[in-house]
Amino acid sequence: MIISLTGFMGSGKSSVARELAALLCCSYIDLDEYIEKAEGRTISNIFEENGEDAFRAMEVKYLKEVIEKTDNDLILSLGGGTVMTAKCKEMVATTTKPIYLQAEIGTLLKNLENQTESRPMLKGGEGLEARISELMDKRETTYRECAELIIQTDGLSPKEIAGKIKEELI
Ligand code: S3P
Q1: pLDDT grade for 125, boundaries at 50, 70 and 90
Q2: From the alpha carbon of 31, which atom of ligand 1 is closest?
């Protein structure tokens, strides 16, 4: 089984994937890291050199690759925008057990304050909070639609969130 973690940037998907994999004794893959390794450049570079559409096409390609080559249990941490692409959403919904890590804007803001450089979707003129709210308005319905499980993460450490997921899975 592939357990996929979805949710907004800064919701803790990557750290929770690591903790959950340790807890369930299986491996994990972070889709962003996988793409960076496969492409030999950072996500920021991909956005700068090829633009967002090209990055979204890469998410489709590499998500398919990861799913096809997985024959064991796996925790798969997705990018915050992965399920916004219809093809990815479909793959995630049909071949994985998607868990949405839900976080309030305040939590996301706190987690993202010093991390905007590595996140091209957060660069821009307006303030960070306004940008997060604007993107979240466009995305939250989709996160909820494709989730089999929604986990409230505010105030919890990645380890605690992983523990909560494990309890729900049993
Ligand atoms: C994105 C989220 C990022 C990364 C890319 C685009 C998004 O992943 O895939 O910068 O559109 O929300 P994280 O959610 O791991 O930051």
Answers
A1: low
A2: 9
